[in-house]
Amino acid sequence: MNDSTKAELLKGAARLHRSAELGGVLLESVEARAPGRHLDPPFTVEIAIESSYSAPMEGKLAYTFRYDVQAKSDDKIVMQVKALYRVKYSFDLEDVPEDVIEAYGENVALATVHPYVRELVRRISGDFGFPPLTLDNLDLSTLFAMFAEGL
Fold first, then answer.
1. What is the CATH number of the domain that holds 34?
2. What pairs with residue 80 in β-bridges?
């Protein structure tokens, strides 16, 4: 993607953001296990995120994020948390292109849901008896660029 295309995409996503209203962040499901309770820190953390979206009706968007967080010690899983979150928005724009909806989800919706996942993982790691595991912040440079371009 060239710079002018990216700039237009970010402007469109910023326009959608100005129109959007957050309807909720919902935890749909969570699965947690700690097969390596006997292993000691330090742990490495691997995060896989899958995302999708749906537009169930005009003016509504729902983004789905599947997180798979694994804390490992020497490639052995110490703890794993799988969580499915749904983030809902309403907006009052017409004919929003799919690439703009995707860019909005990859930036704004992901930045919205990530703190919820961070807290869930931190709480579950403590419940398992591990030191609290705090996930890193997201790289928000694209999000900041979107706002700089479009606002």
1. 3.10.420.10
2. 33, 70
